[in-house]
Amino acid sequence: MTNPLSQRPLYPIVAVSTAQASALPYPSDPTDDAVPLTMDELRQQNRFLRRELQLRNCALDAASSGFLILDMRQRGRPIVFANRALAQRTGYSVQELIGASSKILTPSTPNGDRALAVRDAMREGRELSTEMQTARKDGSLYWTGMSLAPVIDDYLQVTHYVCMSADISGRMEDDRKRQILQYKLAAETKERERVESELRLAQKLEAIGRLAAGIAHEINTPIQYVGDSVAFLQTARDDGQTVLNAYREAIVALENGAAIEDVKGALQETEQKCDVDFYSIEVPKAFERMREGVERVAQIVRAMKEFSHPDAINHEPADINHALETTLVVARNEYKYVASIETQLEEIPSVACNIGELNQVFLNLLVNAAHAIEETGKDVGEGRILVTTQLDGDHVRISVSDNGCGIPPKNLEKVYDPFFTTKEVGKGTGQGLAITRSIVVDKHGGSVEIDSTVGVGSTFILRLPIESTRTEEH
Asked: Residue 6's pLDDT is what?
């Protein structure tokens, strides 16, 4: 059908119900010099507008989204159009919504800043997309995702606001459940980290406890050297005092006119009796043994202090070679009867790490190597543990090799499982390699590899990034 008004200016008509369409007068424009419409033309125009509005209303009523139009020119910003989807969703009829204030859908709902944002947008004539809680007729609430857009007339005045909305309660509930799951996951992760930290501490204390007897023996040996040397020097001092007294008496005797030969003979006899020549050779050796013993004890104490130092929170540059040497001192009693140690420690840069945790890793690997060799029945003349370090690109490579019993292929995938162990009761808890992998891989962003052949031996290879991959918490 041809629009009978196609030759005349049309003004936008928005947000009217079908019942209101017939009451619309044709607006006049003071600048329009066109000939006034006849009555028949007005009737034809009204019929055309009613058909157009009915078509638009039908289209909007068929939509699943809610449509709402507010008249910004009237007090209270009444609703002048609402489609069927919005009415069904809110529990109101279309007739109940038309003419009502928009507050009917948002009575005292906890929208807070969202409500203020909507009010400010309407005051400033801006578009806005937001999420709000909307009230149903029965007072229940649901979440609405809405888009607001202003309708502006020829004089740049906002006359209406068009609102398109959708029920997003399902999505909001999913978001709420997802947030709860995230909170639970964060709590479980924190709890897991706490348990892992306690396990590492327990394993470290277990290792220190297991090494305590050996460390006591390691300290006892040099202390024995010191004690024996002190006893020897005490005897030497007594004999020295005897010789000194003899020389003092010889001086008095000479002053009183005694024969020199008699005095000389008496002194020689005293020196022979006190074995002065022997002391002249052995006393310096005794002092050297004491010095070495004290240095050895100090070395063991320093190593234990460094090894058992509380773990740092942040990763700091550390000397991996020195840490390995320290751990070798601490673990000496574990391997000294079953294997000889060979080290090939190349010059490597400092590594950003938690050195306390890595000390625990090195101890685990050394103790495992010693136990693997011990299981074969080899002694210190046959057993061999090789510790190496070298630069590998932007990583440091550390390996601990042994010529022990090796790991069966069926167990290679299980060695990192917590509590998995093939050792006899009291020899291990199965935590060592699990904690090793956690520290190297999870805590330091490195890697752990195993190359093992049954009856030949095993090599554990660690690769640690030189620069920390961990994000520090401040």
From this structure: 36
Angle between helix 320-330 and helix 355-375 axes, rounded to 10 deg: 50
The token pair at 414 is: 């299980």
Stretch (H or E) spanning 376: none
Task: Give the DSSP letter string of 409-420.
Answer: HHHHTTTTSTT-
DSSP letter at 439 equals I
Calpha distance 206→193 (Å, rounded): 19
Alpha carbon 16 to chain centroid, angstroms: 60
Full domain range(s) for residue 258: 169-308
Residue 465 has phi, psi (to 5 degrees) of -65, 140
101: Cβ contacts below 8 Å, ≥ 6 apart? 76, 77, 78, 79
User: For the residues 283-295, what does the mean pLDDT come to?
Assistant: 85
276 and 240 co-located in one domain: yes
Question: Which of 255, 284, 308 finishes a domain?
Answer: 308
Distance CA 85, CA 59 (A): 11
Q: What is the spatial distance between Cα 463 and Cα 390, in angstroms, rounded to a whole number? A: 10
Give the start-end residues of each E strand in 231-313.
none
414 domain-assigned = yes
The whole-angstrom separation of Cα 300 and Cα 321 is 17
| DSSP 3-state of 151 | strand
Q: What is the pLDDT of residues 387-429, one digit of tens each?
A: 999 999 999 999 999 999 888 888 777 776 654 455 554 444 4
Q: How many domains does the chain have?
A: 3
Same domain, 127 and 251: no
pTM score of the predicted model: 0.48
Return d(Cα 50, Cα 44) in angstroms, integer. Answer: 10
Distance (Å, rounded) from C-alpha 152 to C-alpha 58?
24
Q: For residue 23, with 0-12 CB atoms within 10 Å meaning exposed, 13-18 middle and 19 or more buried, which class applies?
A: exposed
Residues 153 and 185 in one domain: no
Residues 357, 128: Cα–Cα separation, whole Å: 54
Per-residue pLDDT tens digits for 203-227:
666 666 666 666 776 777 778 778 8
Q: What Rg value do the Cα atoms of the chain yield, rounded? A: 47
- Binning pLDDT at 50, 70 and 90, where does residue 329 land? confident
Lowest-pLDDT choice from 3-12, 219-228, 438-447: 3-12
The runs of H, that is alpha helices, within 28-168 are 39-62, 84-90, 94-97, 113-124
What are the residues facing 396 on neighbouring strands? 391, 464
CA-based nearest residue to 52, from 95, 21, 9: 21
Dist. CA 195–CA 30, nearest whole Å: 83
Give the bridge partners for 448, in sequence order: 462
